Amino acid sequence: MLVHVARPEGLLLGDAARAIGVSTDTLRRWERAGKLRTTRDPANRRRVPRREVERLSRRPQRHQAGDRLSARNRFPGVVRSVEMDGVMALVEIEAGPHLVTAAVTRDAVDELGLGPGVPATAAVKATSVMVERGAR
């Protein structure tokens, strides 16, 4: 004879806390305050329904990279200058109050038709971003 035993629904409190990125104490406080709905399993352990975990783990959506380029940091502006030297070129883009200089190939300048006054976007994918504190 085959006996079917129903599995408890939802995550144990500790697993739910890890999935959401908070402590179990926080989840207990939220439950007492009515911000979190839980159930109890046959062993009287708190279970957090998956829909609650999904609701509480939502984060603000970040800027999307787009479908053609993986860099998220984009600075639209206008080409201020192009300096070519051999096979390389320096393209300076005025993006709002900022100047962004890109070292690109001469071929890229030609293929993109870059020159002073041309609208362009500096797309930056940095593996190392440094932050300096102080006056501008």
Q: How does this model look, in words?
A:
This protein is α+β, with helices and mostly antiparallel strands. It folds into two domains: 46 residues, Multidrug-efflux Transporter Regulator, Chain: A, Domain 2, CATH 1.10.1660; 52 residues, RNA polymerase II/Efflux pump adaptor protein, barrel-sandwich hybrid domain (OB fold (Dihydrolipoamide Acetyltransferase, E2P), Beta Barrel), CATH 2.40.50. Strands 6-5-4-7 form a four-stranded antiparallel beta sheet. The protein has a three-stranded antiparallel beta sheet with strand order 1-3-2. The radius of gyration is 27 Å and the shape is elongated. The termini are far apart. 11% of the residues are buried.
Mean pLDDT: 85
How many structural domains in the coordinates?
2
Strand order within the widest beta sheet? 6-5-4-7
Class based on secondary structure composition and strand pairing:
alpha+beta
